[in-house]
Design brief:
The complex is a heterodimer. By secondary structure, chain A is mainly alpha-helical. In chain A, 59% of the residues lie in helices and 4% in strands. Chain A starts with a helix and ends with a helix. Chain B is mainly alpha-helical. The chains are: A mainly alpha, B mainly alpha.
């Protein structure tokens, strides 16, 4: 049964061996196999092709495949390392590993920086931050005057943009996060600590595979 | 009142809540 299962999953485009992924991430081999069960579910929710499309990602996050969200888009784009419009299994595991409790803080800081660097300039620019604040207000159905939004952005920049050049570079970001560690709160998913225990429904195949290898 | 913009974004946006991925199990 294990051999048949292994042959089947090797045909999935973008599939990578759990041992390889475990070697490069904070996950164990069994946890990568458990994640494969989750990946299969997500990647076949709309289009059964073994790849997570943006609509499937949105469906999983919002229970609605049409719900657009700037920050979900950014996370999808960062998971889609090859930038081909879909998330493959290896990309899924490597990216989720950033959110593992055991992953180095430096990786989380870098991922968050790239998340906020909307236009991939290597900086978080003032206009980008304002765009993100406005997107959040729209998502939350909150109404703040433009003056208040400007004040929030100005105040944040006055704390983060230490050299005053109108943009936040990586070093400034690191210092800002060090002074405001709660900014990384959403960069850790406690679920990932031991996914095989947290999600026992995924363990079946993992145990079969472990015993058959 | 002063709000840290990044604090607002990271704590409030549902787009960051990847725990929802696991609820689809």
């Amino acid at each position: 049964m294990g051999c048949l299962f292994t042959k089947h999953i090797k045909q999935i485009p973008g599939y990578e061996e759990p041992t390889v992924l475990a070697g490069e991430t904070s996950f164990t081999v069994s946890e990568v196999e458990a994640l494969y069960e989750l990946f299969k579910k997500l990647s076949s929710s709309i289009i059964v092709d073994g790849l997570i499309h943006k609509e499937e990602f949105q469906l999983a996050l919002f229970k609605n495949s049409n719900t657009r969200n700037l920050f979900a888009d950014r996370i999808f784009d960062l998971f889609d390392v090859k930038r081909n419009g879909v998330i493959e299994f290896g990309e899924f595991v490597r990216s989720l590993s950033v959110f593992h409790p055991n992953t180095a803080i430096s990786e989380k800081i870098e991922f968050a920086f790239r998340l906020y660097d909307l236009r991939h300039t290597g900086f978080i620019e003032r206009e980008e931050l304002k765009e993100m604040v406005l997107a959040l207000l729209k998502e939350s159905d909150l109404c703040l005057s433009d003056d208040v939004v400007e004040t929030i952005v100005d105040k944040t920049f006055s704390e983060a943009d230490l050299n005053g050049d109108g943009k936040i570079d990586r070093e400034e970001w690191k210092e800002f996060v060090a002074r405001n560690p709660s900014l990384l709160k959403n960069m850790t998913l406690p679920y990932l600590k031991d996914i095989t225990i947290a999600f026992p429904s995924f363990v079946l195949y993992s145990e079969v595979e472990d015993s058959d290898i | 009142p002063f709000f840290n913009a990044f604090e607002l974004i990271s704590s409030m946006s549902s787009g960051f809540d990847l725990s929802s991925l696991f609820e689809s199990k």
